Queue: 2 jobs
Job 1
Amino acid sequence: MIEVNHVSLCYRMSAERVSGMKEFLVQALQGKLQYKEFWALQDVDFSIEKGEVLGLVGANGAGKSTMLKVISGILKPTKGTVTVHGNIVPMLELGSGFDLELTGRENVFLNGAILGYSEDFLKEKYQEIVDFSELGEFIEMPLRNYSSGMITRLAFSIATVVKPDILIVDEILSVGDAAFQKKSKNRMMELMSGGTTVLLVSHSAEQITEMCSRAIWLEKGTMKMIGPAADVCRAYEEGQA
Amino acid sequence: MNVKKICAYAVATFLILTVAFRLVAGEGFESGTVTSQMVREKAVTPEILTNTVLEQVFVSECDRITELTLLGTNYGKNVDDELRLTVLDGDGQTVASAGLNTAGLPDSFLWSIPVENSTGGHRGEMLTLQVTSVAGSTGNAVSLFYGDTISAGKYELDIPVEHPLSVDGDAVTGQLCLSVRGESRYPLARYYWHTMAALLVLLLLFCWWMIDSDRRGRSNLILRLLSAATRYRFLLKQLVQRDFKTKYKRSILGVLWSFMNPLLTMMVMYIVFSTLFKSNIVNFPVYLLTGIVCWNFFSEVTGSCLTSITGNTALITKVYVPKYMYPLSRAISSTVNLGLSLIPLVIVMLLTGTRLTVRILLLPFPILCLFLFSFGMGLLLASMMVFFRDTQFLWGVISMLWMYLTPIFYDAEIIPAQYMTLYKMNPLYHIIRIMRILLINGVSPEPKAYLLCAAVSLIPLFLGALVFKKAQDRFVLYL
């Protein structure tokens, strides 16, 4: 389903941040254009089978989110390749495609299109999205009048309406009030148990052990360990302590 | 995706467009009328008597002369004379001749003399106009004006007088005030069908190659583009709708601004340039509005594409969408705007009594060129903007300079001849020129104009697309 072949990703950070043309030219002419290379990922190599739930653990800055971005195509690896079969729904940050000036209804279609849904699919599922988000009448109002809870509820409803081949989750999302949190958690569980390939990132080793069959432990961009979730998590927790 | 069906559509569209274009273009495509520019009057020749011979050498800009226009005076009297005008070629053979009865001519005015018996095929040749009088006598004769400047807008430009007027063999300091009007045939037009047939063969070969690649499961750029077009059509539609909806949201007049904006700009410029600066452009309101509409589109597309990547940082770093979607959606929503601003243009044409001809149907050609060119520039600017945020300020200055280098409110004739080649590098010059010929003159421009227009639009497009393609993978690292 997903094949990650010896992927490395390098951020080139200029020693002093150059963001102007004049600065760039001056420094280029002086030969001072030095870059500090920062390898966010180094030689990461694994593959995920269909229907598998894989967890990614690691400390802050270990490259977990970068890995997810590489797999979802946002970042292009410096070295190595990523092959993905099937459609991906990345649940990295919900509602980043929202336009506050548009109404809820217009945003459903806009955000749905950005996530790669087809027009017919959205028309068919529109009511389901509105119902799940519990927005009711507010759906015809511009988003700038929404509370932040309402926005995340709508975003969650759009993102999870589809049954994707591959679901990429950066931390299990629990949004809204207690009732909606429960509802959204159930929806996530439903998605993850329904034969979908899942890539899950979490700080909580406990959660990974509970939900995943296999896990990868990333540290400073390198793969420290890969194997059954329970073993990896135990090793990770021992390493932390 | 059905490649065969798409190919069939492409070939059918090509055939229909080829025939339709030739039918609509009609007048002006094979041959056109050329009128040479008259020098501004400076002095007047002596009275033209029976034994006077005026000789003026000129380079013919047309194939066949149809009319000669002279600027002359009869000193306020009713002169009863006849002028004989003979145009000779280098071998002394008569090319054209005509007579002008001087009775009842307006004083100090343009005298037009139709020429009927002229022979063809003299473009670029050095010809000599001889003017003699049949019965001119002192006190009963006319004189002609001559000069050594041309008027360009409000300026007068000195021109080098290579062939001065000669009066009885003596050269004077200037050229005769002469305007030669004639018919010019465009050799390129003769090969229209040949060119189109060749293109059709190429298209068929290309289709065959595509179908073959598709059957063997090989992918190529065009196939990928086609599949992307079907896959991302809905997204594009949504993005365009968003741009359009949010643009005028919370403004009272809303979409009416798309009509009002060019109209109001035109009115301001019209007042400024028809009162403060004198301009002798025919049908100035339409001339101005055509320029403004084109320029507004160009500046809107480049301006909005410029920030299309940096302004969508939140999306680009979170979701994978082909990056060209962002500038493309903005360019398309500007095109919708352009379509709306064509409505006031048509209204102004009707109000000024401009003849609406079938040639309006050719407008999609310059508009397409304008779109491709502006989009190409937009891609280039969008990629530059990611790496150098100075681009937006720099572009503000450059685009202002560019506006003045584009004939929006002045006539390109005022540009000194030695800078003309450089001046014509501006794609907008060619695009606006075609639009004006179509709208104001109601004829088709010469075939060369279409070719040039397409070439100068496609080059920046390819350049922009290339830069964008090369840079797009690194965008996310700099956002």
Job 2
Amino acid sequence: MHFDFTPEEERFRAEVRAFLDENLPPEGQRDAAFQVEWQRKVRARGWVGFSWPKQVGGGGASIAEQVILKEEMALRKAPPLGSCFMGLAWVGPALIEFGSEAQKARFIPDILDGKYQWCTGYSEPSSGSDLASLQCRALREGDHYVVDGQKIWTSIAMWSKWMILLVRTDFRTESKHEGITCLLVEMATPGITVRPIRNMSGGAMFAEVFFDGVKVPVENRLGAEGEGWRVTVSALAHERSGIAEVTGLQRSLESIKGLARRCLRGGGPASEDPAIRRRVARADTRIEAMRLNGLRALTKQLRGEPLGSETSVNKLHRANLEVELGELALEIEGSRGALAAGSDVVPDAGYWQRFALSWPEVVIGGGTPNIQRNIIAERILGLPKD
Amino acid sequence: MDFGFSEEQELLRAELRKFLAEHAPSAELRRIAETPEGFSRALWKQMAELGWLGLTVPEAYGGAGLGFVDWVVLLEETGRALLPSPLVSSALCAAALRGGSEAQRALWLPRLADGSAIGSVAILEASDHLAPEGVALAGRREGDGFVLSGEKLFVGDAGAADLFAVAFRTGDAPESISLALVERSAPGVAAEDLPGIDLTKRSGRLRLDGVRVPRAALLGEAGAAWPAVARLLDLGAFAAAAEAAGAAEAALQLTVSYAQQRIQFGSPIGRFQGVKHPLAEMYVDVESWKSLVYYAAWALDAGHPDAPLAVSRAKAYASEAFARIGIDCVQLHGGIGYTWEYDAQLFLKRSKWVRPAFGDADFHYQRVAALGEL
């Protein structure tokens, strides 16, 4: 058991640090021009799609190098590596595994360069946690498919140029996992209507997307017809290690400690209230457990052992923590916790109110906590499926 | 980077698991736990011969000279088996000897390693206060030593121990604490176990009535032992969390296999989310506190400054989560879980022993807050 990296890996860490010293201004000074420059520079270094094979333009990095890069970026609160978020998380990995050479050449460079956004057309009004029951249909007509149906909870649909879409091409299969096909759809195609949905924090990040006789060329099918479920599940397996999430939670907790020192509670600083202190420590302990769980999973990868459903454990921790940190912050604020942004009375300009109203984005998106519990119980503990 | 066990450590684990399954299955551990001594001398001897009692004792004193990461493997397995044994108490006494003289180490460490002597540590008193102020037992100066009269409580394996490392007060300043070796056979010493919820863990009272502690019996300097005592408390908390991880994992496995077999409403009850989800939560907790325990072991071995923080995180998590797991283990079994014959109750009772041992969840969370500069 040790936490050392090889001299070669440490050299890479030094290289990343030197790059950050030179190219990353303090947080307050990162304007739009910087963001553009940043994406160009990290792209030139091969750090966008760092884990992807070099043949497709990725970084071909080892697991240790990926960890080092993520750690260093997170420590310095650097902007994301690459701006095509869904493309990097979902589309690229699926293209690498299932895409034709023509599709890879057409889409991967643009994803790496962040030329435009992608969105993911997965959930439907009647198919959320039970995604494989999806009903949005595509019928083949000559050299194209005609898509009819609806998607929902589609993040950033209104700002996306392309969508990776799951449709049903065969309604007569025995298993609901068969008969699903994956299509790449240009959002400007006639027949597509995007209707943003306002969420409880007042903003709109996701949307409903309606398809009415939308024609998609067959060449934009990803993988074989009926193979769509495998394409999706495989992309799901390209899970992030959770390092960035842990760092984000650590930072939030540090800020909450600061908040507790500034807020009065019962005549003294909230930071001196033993009940508050216990909750801060409890959150700290769970964040540390997440960090260490991640390192155990990473060790398995480094040893070449297959990863199981370990990430579900940290997803549950994260879900609990995202909710708990928001609740803790508002309780620390006392009566001010019920205010919203817009007065000089609310602490931190209402940051914690927004925080406490935005957890569903990460807690529900990508699988609710109960779905994670099912995954752990069935895939790890071997309990019978529902 | 390698945050896992080595092949040797995995071999040790396999060997331990096989040995304990063979020699301390449920029926046998229940029999052992109900004997007056509360542990098996025969098993104790075998474990000594296999090198497990002296795992962390330096080789120069007859031990295996291994570290806390190795010790975790041992503790997870004795915890999994709910083995009744003074193993942890004796190892803590050996750890107390680290601050002793060469003569003390040469006399006692080989005997603790080969099992011919059983040790323990006596720190807490009636105030149940894990702080220098909690040590009120005053040493009265006599010649070059002290005389002790009073009572120590919650002393691990008090009934079995031959040797105690006793903390006592030698000045008015809060941290004027001394630590000395007291033999059970010395005049004025009486030690007994008190009845406990968990029959597989013994702890009790050490009575001292005019017990002479010569200078040669002191571990380190008089009045300067609080750091050593604090370290013993950390090691005790660490050991409790490590044993609890093994026990909780066994409780989870017991409940999972029951949920796979028990048929109600025409289906194994493990199919129902009301059963499935608490089991998933148990898994999340066990894996997470294992991670915290492993890191604490590494930090203790490495002498990392974060070791006390790492220990407190592990013990806080263990105390809180194991209490829940003990209850869920019984509850998810239904009526059978409430019976004496079925093992679920043994895990619930162990969780009651673990919860306060060397600091409960609140004690350790408060410490995490303080160490985290809140």
